[in-house]
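Write out this protein's structure.
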Amino acid sequence: MTSSVSSIGSGPPRIERVRIKNYRVLRDLDLPNLTPLSAFLGPNGSGKSTLFDVFAFLSECFTVGLRRAWDKRSRFRELRSRGSDGPIEIEVKYRETPQAGLITYHLAIDESASGPYVAEEWLQWRRGRYGKPFRFLEFREGTGSVISGELPEIDDQRVQENLESPDLLAVNTLGQFARHPRVSALRRFISGWYLSYLSAESTRGVPEAGPQERLSQSGDNLPNVIQYLKEQHPDRLAKILVVLARRIPQLERVDANLLADGRLLLQIKDAPFEEPILAKFASDGTLKMLAYLTVLYDPHPAPLIGIEEPENQLHPRLLPQLAEECRAASANSQLLVTTHSPYFVDGLKSEELWVLYRDEDGFAHARRAGDMSKVRTFVEEGAQLGDLWMEGYFEVGDPLTAAGGLTGS
């Protein structure tokens, strides 16, 4: 038997299932059998942005702390599902590598007069193929126990721990210690997520010079990332520009040049003109596609990448190609994309696509397109997913409102 979970095969971490309770319109949403690229389709108000925010909220709990992430979202007043009185619950089932054992992370958050607190938090897995899963980390309101070691066993010694405050996450706190490698692995995984809120306008600035490895959520450091790639990974930058040139006709070169005052100026050269233009005069689509490609072709990509509504500011003909780039990137990262564009959907496989809709109860539900018999049949006959959605074949009501309930199979 191998002595390390991380040595069982290779490959990036993968989330296989997510369940969310009492988070705004997601009163009880279950997403099983997630694929490396998972896209969530639906009209405005169907719950796409809320689902995206669940991942952002969990990531922020690990990077800036529960209280700040909570306050940013106006606490229970805005977070908890209407009519609900229980805690917010997020449960993630994932594997550290595709061949490693399945680990379940459960987090329940409640609120008292003094603020949010972790009502329940646990990690569970099953060692080997047989036997009942057991919890090797279990905490309530800042008090609990953990089994240390590379491969925790049910009979191993449990160490009691008390956190400084009930609003601290045990995984985030104990995961800083090398003696808890499985806890540390989850902490690194969630802390490393990249969730983008890119806009073309934010990429037009002139930031202070200095290479930066990863694009910010808004994309305002795009010149810094181009500088980093130019200095440290010129081959990767060349690849990005080759792909960009295939998507944007006539584009020849992208440069990040240092100004006398220490700022960086992004310039774009297109044929047949001799002089490049400033980024602030480039098209929204060019800048947005360049920003996405720097994320998807990152030399050291985030383990999970979230992209919200990539269709904004991009020409519809670019969207199926962007879907292909996302699928290629999913070999090294897990990708979650929200969209309401039939053009982006045309570049997806039916098992990669989920449809979000709100039924008569007002809360969000989800169905995988590949689980709909009509969709499977039409796709096998050559139909495109985007057309099937717009023509109402997705069995979840009107595609513009998705408020009509199920229409049968």
